[in-house]
């Protein structure tokens, strides 16, 4: 009997979905498809584009455009009508949400324009370590009524950290990231330090996340997301520890330690499978897709998704 009831419920849900669809496949009325613009076509951008092409319809999503600095990478994989030649022409595509998965400089140069016109997911939150950029995007989001989304990515327990901070309970937060030396894309003196980690484990950095972000913009987005989840501490108060370990060829490790009032503390350790040399772990791709699915209805604020 219970099985029959469950089946009837499923059939009703499917029927409602079908009735909301018109003959063109678009959602009717206020259930129209949400148009998604993708900025960047590296591994993560390619994954998101394919998921949108394969699964977007059933989630009420469709591609509005795809842009990449090297437009040749879009040939034969992205339909011509979805390729955006000039990033400054993005308004013509009427995207409801724009997702940056390219480089922090895109956020710094175009993020304000994006969030004025649509919801904006910052896939490179290390860009927000620049205080002027963070304040500018927060202001534009608030005034335009659009959401500045920060994807959790490899940050485990981000919303718990946010709730702890919102309640005034968070006193300290440390994020430690450990990867194989070949997985780092580092600038400045850190680029020299990582060369010495080919045979042994080396601590590359230990200190405030703000100073680390410009030196490792592609590697510490998880730390930057933690800073946005804990605005009471921010980029100056959250401690980041970056470690190169030649004995980790198959996965990345992210350790979170949060300390609160009255002796409260919580520690987590996340092992993310990753090919040797990969900047992004495998589980992070799925996490980005999951983040996109909740990006609706949070207007005018910063939202960790």
Please tell me about this protein's structure.
The chain is an alpha/beta fold and 305 residues long. The protein contains ten helices and eleven strands. It has helices at residues 2-20, 43-55, 104-117, 131-144, 158-166, 188-193, 209-212, 221-229, 234-237, 282-293, and strands at 34-39, 61-67, 97-100, 119-122, 148-150, 170-179, 202-208, 239-244, 251-260, 265-273, 302-304. The strands form two sheets. It has a six-stranded parallel beta sheet, sandwiched between helices. Strand 9 (251-260) and strand 10 (265-273) form a beta hairpin. Helix 3 (104-117) packs parallel to helix 4 (131-144). The longest helix has 19 residues, at 2-20. It starts with a helix and ends with a strand.
């Amino acid at each position: 009997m219970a099985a029959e009831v469950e089946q009837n419920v499923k059939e009703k849900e499917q029927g409602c979905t079908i009735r909301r669809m018109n003959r063109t496949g678009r959602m009717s009325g206020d259930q129209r498809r949400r148009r998604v613009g993708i900025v960047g076509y590296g591994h993560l951008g390619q994954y998101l584009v394919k998921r949108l092409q394969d699964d977007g319809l059933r989630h009420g999503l469709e591609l509005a455009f795809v842009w990449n600095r090297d437009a040749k990478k879009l040939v034969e994989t992205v339909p011509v009508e979805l390729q955006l030649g000039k990033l400054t022409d993005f308004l013509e595509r009427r995207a409801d949400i724009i997702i940056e998965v390219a480089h922090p400089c895109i956020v710094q140069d175009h993020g304000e324009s994006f969030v004025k016109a649509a919801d904006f997911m910052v896939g490179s939150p290390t860009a927000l370590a620049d205080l002027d950029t963070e304040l500018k995007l927060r202001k534009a989001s608030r005034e335009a009524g659009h959401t500045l989304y920060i994807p959790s990515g490899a940050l485990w327990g981000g919303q718990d950290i946010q709730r702890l901070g919102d309640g005034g309970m968070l006193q300290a937060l440390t994020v430690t990231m450990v990867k194989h030396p070949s997985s780092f894309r580092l600038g400045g003196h850190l680029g020299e330090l990582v060369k010495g980690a080919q045979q042994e484990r080396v601590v590359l950095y230990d200190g405030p996340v703000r100073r680390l972000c410009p030196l490792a913009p592609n590697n510490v987005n998880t730390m930057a997301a933690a800073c946005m989840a804990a605005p009471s501490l921010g980029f100056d108060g959250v401690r980041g520890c970056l470690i190169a370990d030649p004995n980790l060829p198959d996965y990345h490790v992210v350790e979170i330690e949060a300390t609160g009032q009255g002796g409260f503390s919580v520690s987590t350790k996340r092992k993310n499978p990753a090919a040797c040399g990969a900047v992004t772990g495998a589980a992070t791709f799925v996490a980005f897709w999951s983040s996109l699915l909740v990006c609706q209805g949070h207007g005018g604020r910063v939202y960790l998704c």
